Amino acid sequence: MVIQPKPSVADPVLLILDGHSTHSxxxxxxxxxxxxxxxxxxxxxxxxxxxxxxxxxxxxPFNTFYVQAVEKxxxxxxxxxxxxxxxxRLLGEAFLKAATPATAINGFRKCGIVPQNQDVFxxxxxxxxxxxxxxxxxxxxxxxxxxxxxxxxRILEAAEEDVEEESLLLEDPQDQTxxxxxxLQPGPSSRSQPDPPSSPQPGTSSSSQTSFAxxxxxxxxxxxxxxxxxxxxxxxxxxxxDCLYCHELYSCSKDRKGWIKCSGCRRWAHEACxxxxxxxxxx
Length: 283
Known about the structure:
mainly alpha; Herpes Virus-1; two-stranded parallel ribbon; two-stranded antiparallel sheet; 6% strand; Znf_FYVE_PHD; endonuclease activity; DDE_SF_endonuclease_dom; hydrolase
């Protein structure tokens, strides 16, 4: 490739080879061709009998001349066989007969290389390929790929369900509130009534009324047994707590016992009205 043609920048060499791995996957061969101004063209698989000049014009006559040389040797030497010592001489005789300029010219012309002929092949040259022309089979996914795909599908389904739940939570609560108002309306007996305005007693200032309210609230918070304890001087005060359910004032109860505080609204109610026992501190 390098010694005989002596390629150069001004006179490069075109080398046409088949697609064997020793040619197409040989890095040392490819680098040497680049360094010596040689262009290598690999033919498609199973096409060398139509596209490679050596296969088209040279190998046939060369094989014929070699067989003739072997037959001639066997006839001239009865009882002897062709060994490794005779192969070189017989091969040389056949090569000199086959390797002629006319054979090389016909090979390049028959393959459409020189002169270039794009229509050198006819439809008949492709008929044999139609018998084995089958669609490529898609590789079947293995077990790991199937499991991975199923896992991804499950994750996507779970994500879609979460999105649906979030969309339900983000809906306008006004419609649901209006639809359930009839269940939220308090009954007649439990409807909260506004406390009557307290009128200060003669000789009592507004500051003393405010201080009394604060004192009473502190007393409510410190109760641990659920019972109210008022000073005797506040019994006659009109600002009194009422039951959360029946609205009876604490001052009007007979024994002033049996009261319990709501832990939510911090208001008081009869234990009987709230349905609680005496040992309960709050409800």
